[in-house]
Amino acid sequence: MAPALLALLAVAELGALATGSSPPENNSFRCLDGCVIWNLAVNDNQCHCAGCEDEESWVCTSCSGGCPSSCGDSRACQDERPSYNARRLQMQSLGGALILPILSILLGVVFIVAGVVLCIRKRQQGPAPGPAELVSGPQPTVIGGA
Sorted alphabetically, which keywords does the UniProt record give (predicted)? Predict the structure, then answer.
């Protein structure tokens, strides 16, 4: 299906959910008390069932809004700490944003260190021979007079 069509169907289902119409059997979740809710309402951080069984991460005592008192009602649950998936996504986006600058800094440091090492080695070897020394070789040294 095209993404636009899927989005339109999702909006239509959410609209039906908001108006309180009962969902078809293949698109529904049945609470322990018999209340039937839309599948879209499962694991949406809102308790729709009297025992909050439509949420994997929440129970009535941990949901900040508590549990609804009647079928068709809902209570929003909010967590102060981000979920594992939210933290993982934050770390991925942070890591992606930091990896390139860190790698470029490290690469720059490697080039600087390599340049310094080359300079030190050249100094230890002494000055490079000039063109005359390369052609004629070393000059003889006369000892004791001419």
Answer: Membrane, Signal, Transmembrane, Transmembrane helix
